[in-house]
Amino acid sequence: MVQENEEVHVLMVTLAAQGNINPMIMLAKVLLSKGIHVTLATTEASRKRLLNSSASSITNTSTNSKFYWEFYSDGLSDDFDRVNNIEVGVKSIFTYSPPSVSNIIKKLGDVRKFSYVIYNPFVPWAFDVAVEHNIPCAMLWIQPCALYAMYYHFYNDLSPFPTMENPNIPIELPGLPVLCMDDMPSFIHPSTPFPLCKTLLTSMIKNLDKVKWVLGNSLYDLEKNVIDAIDQLHPITPVGPLVPPIILGKEESVKGNADMWNVDDSCLEWLDKKSNMSVIYISFGSLSVLSAEQMENIALGLKKTNRPFLWVVKPPENPTADGKGELPEGFIFFAKSKRGV
């Protein structure tokens, strides 16, 4: 229990993936604006990239609360290829990261006594660390509440789902329209190439009954039916949308971002010249690396649309001989000459 007038410090724990960090940073800004101190912990391997990024600084002008970075070990060297060895990386995180985060809590105990821990679904072991230190814990669900409900029913065997043997089983979940196999997220799709996601999400679901709060990156009016339905099983409290206030037409009292790569906004002037809803936008996040064939197919599809497009492609950190993750030869010239980006 936090005493009156006592400083409140919150520890947030996330993986070093841009799509994981962004909603955590947005929630951190909300907490900072309320006078709460926030420490965001992510993997040591991202330290240099985050601290060197010109945009990775958080400053608060509305209160005296402060933001801190901390970095925990995943047990792997800085030059280890985590993208192409995801299974090894996840297993190492489960082994080495819990004691590393525990050591952070011990190390900072005298200067930042944490009142709460907030973690996202992809670091479920953070719950056990919070329990070890007797700290109340919340999970921030960073995807739509509809997916929270789907995963909850799937991993608790509460509803039938399609399989490769029976692909036509309808997915009937309270608060959602009837879905089919092609509507399933890749993490639980029968043909999923991510078997370790089952380990992550099973661990997350197992801990839910012991988590004090589940927070959702959504808003009630957007997902009313599914939020009301899942409330009967395991409630989720929407605290979103966790997006930059400027998108909502609001002023931002807590400035800064946490970008793992320097932001290139050179496309904005080009976009401003295009009519509304005329540009095709494609991005697969900071972790996905597509095969050369997939890159070729996307490029071919974009050419055939005869529409302006913005395709965000992060150059592979460890190039391969088969051209994995690389744009097809000549495509940049085509994009610049035909589309402007």
Automatic annotation (TrEMBL):
The keyword Transferase applies. It comes from the Eukaryota. Keywords: Transferase. GO terms for molecular function: abscisic acid glucosyltransferase activity; quercetin 3-O-glucosyltransferase activity; quercetin 7-O-glucosyltransferase activity. Gene3D superfamilies: Glycogen Phosphorylase B. Belongs to the UDP-glycosyltransferase family. This is UDP-glycosyltransferases domain-containing protein. It comes from Aquilegia coerulea (Rocky mountain columbine).
